[in-house]
Amino acid sequence: MNSRAKLTVVVMVVLAALLLGAGLALGLTPKTGSYVGQTAQGELVRLKVTNNGKRVSGFRTKAVVRCPGGRYYIPVFLPWSERISPRGRFTYYAYNDVASIRIVGKFVTERRVRGTFRARFNDGTESCESGIVRWRAHA
Predict the structure, then answer these.
(1) Cα atoms in the Cβ-side hemisphere of radius 13 Å centred on 38
(2) Maximum Cα–Cα distance for the chain, whole Å?
(3) Tell me, what's the pLDDT at 26?
(4) 26 and 32 in contact (C-beta within 8 Å)?
(5) Alpha-carbon Rg of the chain, whole angstroms?
(6) Domains of the chain by start residue, with CATH
(7) Rounded to the nearest 5°, which phi and psi values hold at 46?
(8) pLDDT at site 77
(9) Distance separating alpha carbons of residues 108 and 44, to the nearest angstrom
(10) pLDDT in tens, 5-52
(11) CA 19 to CA 89: how far, in whole Å?
(12) Residue 31: Cβ-neighbour burial (10 angstroms; 0-12, 13-18, 19+)
């Protein structure tokens, strides 16, 4: 085998490895079942993966929010299921005249997920916010 043929084989092997790695990153399917973890504020996080790893539901935790009148705990939850993208990501955003919540998550492996949430509310007398809170959970 001449040096050009050897170089061609090496390039093909490297490209195959890169494509395989990219395929694994794009093809992440989370494990179906219950996940549990913790927020950066020390609160318990729970969620479920359903529909063969294609949907997340039951996200629940508490957020410590800062208000002019003090600090309070408010529930943070996902009231229905959200689709998990082929890259292992999900986003939930909801708001009304008084409050807003945004939950973002990414499955970093088939059994581990991490993300952030932010809760805000304003009842007309005071404005409160959790800030961006990081969370992690595992199956």
Answers:
(1) 4
(2) 80
(3) 56
(4) no
(5) 21
(6) 29-138 (2.40.128)
(7) -135, 145
(8) 86
(9) 19
(10) 443 443 443 333 433 444 334 568 999 999 999 999 999 999 999 999
(11) 21
(12) middle
Name the token pair of 68. Answer: 């002019």
**Residue whose pair of structure tokens reads 């993208």 in the numeric block:** 85
User: HEC profile for the chain?
Assistant: CCHHHHHHHHHHHHHHHHHHHHHHHHCCCCCCEEEEEEECCCCEEEEEEECCCCEEEEEEEEEEEEECCEEEEEEEECCCCEECCCCCEEEEEEECCCEEEEEEEEECCCCEEEEEEEEEEECCCCEEECCCEEEEEEC
pTM, rounded to two decimals: 0.77
